[in-house]
């Protein structure tokens, strides 16, 4: 007689076939991935793109370079702890760092709406200059375009960046191994909640400030210490959960995460509860995960506790071989569930 079998059945919610762009296509979740897979990857297919990392790693003249780009449409333009200019610089700087590179040069492209106060632009540009100086990069080229009144939303900024890889490590999803530790650099959810609290007019005892910050110091310190960093990923749009799902799928490995180990401030947790959001999906602009051999996790934590913005850093889980492409989250009561990308848009125009 046949033995009874346990069959794992998954019932993904079907995504309706879209014929137009929706706001959810910009959310970093399932719809964004669908757009990339349907439109961009088939058209631009190249090995550098297939690495599915925060930037491309390319070689030229004997040097290994990281190259990345990011557009910024955050609304409002100014919020506690940052503004569109600070995000535009730090977002690109951090993506270069996630490739294991030292960020060097940035470009800045501006799409301005007719009627925007020049004083507003000056404020954004001053913030970009300050952020670039703090991260040790130069903004060395740029572009300006103007659209008619009503056809933009004040100001959009696109930055691209180039960095130099000065070591022999291959930092990316393909280097992740079973047994690796997953180390988180600090508390999560501040950026998304700072934006949402501003938009919703929520007042707390103390305002939630965005965590927008360059990750130069912690990343350079991890690399300078000679740690065998396998992969890094900043936790921007879609938050920690989406970043881990992307890494699990790209590496075809399992990420087993302990929810109780994830640092979240009381303020952020409270704001998330009011708005019905899960901190693991809320955007950050100055936090990252580092995946490296378990034996080096303690060293990484010690380095991050000295150098990473926010805090405290935490060992939140580890990597296993199977079932491949999955992220499991063990809750306070020991229940385990599978994390997935969000299907729609949780927080539109967060960066
Ligand atoms: Mg990134």
Please, could you describe this protein's structure?
The protein has two domains: 46-165, 2-Layer Sandwich (60s Ribosomal Protein L30, Chain: A); 173-339, Phosphoribosyl-aminoimidazole Synthetase, Chain A, domain 2 (Alpha-Beta Complex). With 351 residues, the chain is an alpha+beta fold. The protein has nine helices and 14 strands. The protein has helices at 30-44, 47-50, 84-98, 118-135, 190-200, 216-224, 239-251, 266-275, 297-307, and strands spanning 56-60, 63-72, 78-79, 82-83, 102-113, 138-147, 155-165, 180-184, 231-234, 254-258, 288-293, 314-320, 326-330, 336-339. Residues 1-13 have low confidence and may be disordered. The protein has a seven-stranded mixed beta sheet, sandwiched between helices. The protein has a five-stranded mixed beta sheet with strand order 1-2-7-5-6, covered by helices on one side. The protein has a two-stranded antiparallel ribbon with strand order 3-4. Helix 3 (84-98) runs parallel beside helix 4 and helix 6 packs antiparallel against helix 9 (297-307). The structure holds magnesium ion. Magnesium ion (MG) binds next to helix 3.
């Amino acid at each position: 007689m046949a033995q009874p079998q346990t069959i794992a059945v998954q019932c993904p919610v079907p995504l309706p076939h879209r014929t137009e762009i929706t706001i959810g296509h910009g959310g970093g979740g399932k719809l964004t991935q669908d757009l990339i897979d349907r439109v961009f990857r088939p058209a631009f297919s190249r090995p550098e793109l297939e690495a599915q990392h925060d930037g491309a790693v390319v070689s030229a003249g004997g040097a290994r370079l990281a190259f990345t780009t990011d557009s910024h449409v955050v609304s409002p333009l100014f919020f506690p702890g940052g503004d569109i200019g600070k995000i535009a610089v730090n977002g690109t700087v951090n993506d270069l760092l996630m490739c294991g590179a030292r960020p060097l040069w940035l470009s800045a492209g501006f799409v301005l709406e007719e009627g925007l106060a020049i004083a507003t632009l000056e404020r954004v540009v001053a913030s970009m200059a300050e952020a670039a100086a703090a991260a040790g990069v130069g903004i060395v080229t740029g572009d300006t375009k103007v659209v008619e009144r009503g056809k933009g939303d004040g100001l959009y900024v696109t930055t691209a960046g180039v960095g130099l890889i000065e070591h022999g490590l291959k930092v990316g999803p393909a280097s992740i191994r079973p047994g690796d530790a997953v180390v988180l650099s600090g508390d999560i959810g501040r950026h998304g909640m700072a934006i949402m609290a501003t938009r919703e007019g929520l007042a707390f005892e103390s305002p939630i400030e965005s965590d927008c910050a360059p990750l130069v110091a912690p990343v350079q310190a991890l690399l300078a210490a000679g740690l065998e960093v396998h992969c890094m990923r900043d936790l921007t749009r879609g938050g920690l959960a989406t970043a881990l799902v992307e890494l699990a799928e790209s590496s075809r490995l399992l990420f087993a995460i302990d929810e109780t180990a994830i640092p979240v401030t009381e303020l952020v947790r409270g704001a998330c509860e009011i708005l019905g959001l899960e901190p693991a999906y809320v955007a950050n602009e100055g936090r990252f995960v580092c995946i490296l051999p378990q034996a080096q996790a303690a060293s990484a934590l010690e380095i991050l506790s000295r150098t990473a913005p926010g805090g405290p850093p935490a060992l939140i889980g580890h990597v296993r071989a199977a079932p491949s492409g999955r992220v499991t989250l063990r809750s306070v009561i020991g229940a385990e569930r599978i994390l997935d990308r969000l299907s729609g848009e949780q927080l539109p125009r967060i960066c």
